[in-house]
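REVIEWER CHECKLIST
Item 1: Sequence provided? yes
Item 2: Single chain? yes
Item 3: Sequence as submitted:
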Amino acid sequence: MRLSLIAVLVPDYDEGIAFFDALGFGLVQDEPRGPGKRWVVMRPQGGGSDILLARAVEDQRAAIGRQAGGRVGFFLTTTDFAGDAERIEAAGGTFEERPRDEEYGRVAVFRDPWGNRWDLIEPFILIAGDGGGRA
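Item 4: Structure as written out by the authors:
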């Protein structure tokens, strides 16, 4: 098995598409699925799990931006921290903190336009034969 899709609740399909498109995600599918419903799948450039944009209805609206109960629930890995951070902010994301270096890499928490918390992570590259040091 492999994890293929992660649903992200959004108030509007087109808003979700615009945000993730600005981050460099590609639109994989956008098909009608009944009255007022669409099957909208976005794929990150670097691979990984796709995102299913799910327009929240009725009771689901209360969960927009709080899908992980206030915790960081989504993680994006990058090789261009500064460039991707700039794209996130230009698209409407908001960083909660300045980037910090942890033992595994550079990281910062941001919120998407709907309030979900994400980590943007640039892992430190291990150099072969250096005893586990980082580049």
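Item 5: Key structural point noted by reviewer: The first strand starts at residue 5 and ends at 10.
Item 6: Recommendation: ____
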